[in-house]
Amino acid sequence: MNFAAAGPMGAEMVGGLDLLRTATAITAKTLVVGSELDTQVPIEHMREIADSIPGADFLPFDDTGHFIEVEHRNRWATLVGNFLRS
What domains does the chain contain, in order, with CATH numbers? Predict the structure, then answer.
């Protein structure tokens, strides 16, 4: 874990991090993941981000909270691995 990033990341969140402001400029292949039960970052927000990035794929996880990679480790690894290989 990159603990050095926690301070700047926290400041951005408190100051109003706007991920949509530059989303249309992203040209890399992009996978956005959202979780139905995530109370930290609601799935609707993740879908909005995906919709703002040209050609982005959106991957919703049902019955999952904020820690998808922990709660559904095998499914996460398979789906992300498939995306990276495609």
Answer: 26-85 (3.40.50.11320)
Per residue, the 3-state secondary structure of 4-38, as one string, reads HHHHHHHHHHHHCCCCCCCHHHCCCCCEEEEECCC
pLDDT, tens digit, 9 for 90 and up, residues 43-70: 998 999 999 999 999 999 988 998 999 9
Would the pTM of this model clear 0.90, i.e. be above it? no
Q: What is the CA radius of gyration of the chain?
A: 14
Instruction: Give the position of tokens 């559904």.
Output: 72
Which residue, chain included where needed, has tokens 């922990």?
70
Residue 17's identity, in one-letter code, is L
Q: Which DSSP category does 58 fall into?
A: E
